[in-house]
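User:
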Amino acid sequence: MLDVFKTTGALLDGHFRLTSGRHSNTYFQCAKVLQYPEHLTAVCSRIARHFADKDVETVISPAIGGIVVGTEVGRQLGVKTIFAERKDGIMTIRRGFNLDRNERVLVIEDVITTGGSVAEVIELINRSGASLVGVGSVVDRSNGRVKLADDHFSVLSMEVISYTPEECPLCKKGVTIDAPGSRANKQS
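Assistant: Predicted structure:
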């Protein structure tokens, strides 16, 4: 999987502000991998196979990065796929989507660093009375340190160092920062 990221130009080196607000010298741009149907199908089939016997009824993803992965995993599982998105900075379920009490829900994300967006989606599941089946992702940047569910599966799991903006050595050196993530981040 790491080779696929490298050959598609999706593994970037530099100085990046992650969606979580943390800084890193490594960035996984999943969209560059997932733009190729053969990679999208292969990556999502690994996630779908992992959860195939879990009686998933719905796949939900946080917008925007997880939507493509979640939709394909849901398609392969043959279940409804929806997404949650931020409205006024708060993760919500909109656009007529809903979760029913006891509905078996799988959360799918592209990249997990701190798990903040996924945790917000899990809170929406809990508030609705639905049942969390598990969490799947393409990349786990924490190498398993961030565990969001009893059944948490990632296609690629590796530790990628990240820093708070205050402790970032690249900031201290004055290296220009890029914020390629899908959520606007505050400048630091």
